[in-house]
Amino acid sequence: MDGRSLVTDGDRGGTGTIFLQAALNGARTRLDHPAIPVSVEELARDAVACVAAGARAIHLHPRDREGRERLDAAVVDEVVVRVRTACEVPVGVTTGAWIEPDLDRRLALVRAWRAPDFASVNLSERGATEIMAALVQAGVGIEAGVSSVEEAGLLATSGFGDRVTRILLEPVDVSRDDAGAAVDGIHRALDRGGLTAPRLQHGDGEATWVLLVDAIRRGIGTRIGLEDTLNGPDDERTSGNEALVRAARQFISDTG
Fold it and tell me: Beta partners for 224?
């Protein structure tokens, strides 16, 4: 199966419902939560469970055999292929600058990718525009991560606003009380910039469930997973990614 052929269908949510992505691990380790998937076998297992629970795409941070985040094509492509083969939905990765701080080195690594369906690019990081160009060269879709009004403006003037797979609205470190106002401002800035790509809104920490419910209300995509939160909607510690996806899908079903 060609994973990239699944991207469009996945963004429609598969069954006409809100598009839900599962973010499996991020930069977290088992010190954060014992259910964090690290190995390719664990990632594949979690991806299968999350898709069965209602996720329509997977976002993950590939690790080497020592559990370190890597951007090397040998690691990224192997992990993506094995996970996508197992779960049969699009699989995306990160381009996070903390994994390879040297921009030239990071660009070379990204250009060598062949397997990911899409990759997230943090507009807050130096070299974001160059990383988006490298993804285009590699034939990998772009998830443009926008965390502020200023970054929405940067995307609008980047030349890639009409070439992204989707725009991630992801204000970081905001309280649950301030989260709504934060995304309102970003949405307005994206509208002013004429950016019409599909939007996926999510939060982290205490704002996670607030922004997920708000995304459902807006009728746009959202995501959930241990990368974003260690707690379920009741603020109790979650058992893992599958439980988070099931809870998110229940919110979507309850909304109708």
Answer: 22
